[in-house]
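Repro:
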Amino acid sequence: QVQLVESGGGLVQDGGSLRLSCEAFGRTFRSYAMGWFRQAPGKERKFVAAVNWSGRSTYYTDSVKGRFTISRDNAKNTVYLQMNSLKPEDTAVYYCASEKAPLTATPSRRAYEYDYWGQGTQVTVSS
């Protein structure tokens, strides 16, 4: 049974920071790329960031480049999303996910390429 457990969401003011964490259980964590996605009310789930299995390569959607940083600690089976300079439009439920295929060179930006998901954590940025 694979389980992804997220933490770190909350309410923050415009310009503030939050750090999300996602710990994985039941899978060889270090072999799989990890991604963060978000879903705002009434909208589809969208890609935010991904890190490859080794942690050496990271990818971001354009709207968060320079503000968000994804990283992973394979010894702790945990992936992080450091979010700085938060804006009201970043308000959403954030989900971490584990990619289906192991050891991919470039993580996918497509949600259907990920087979395990966390429960989601709410991030609210007030103006």
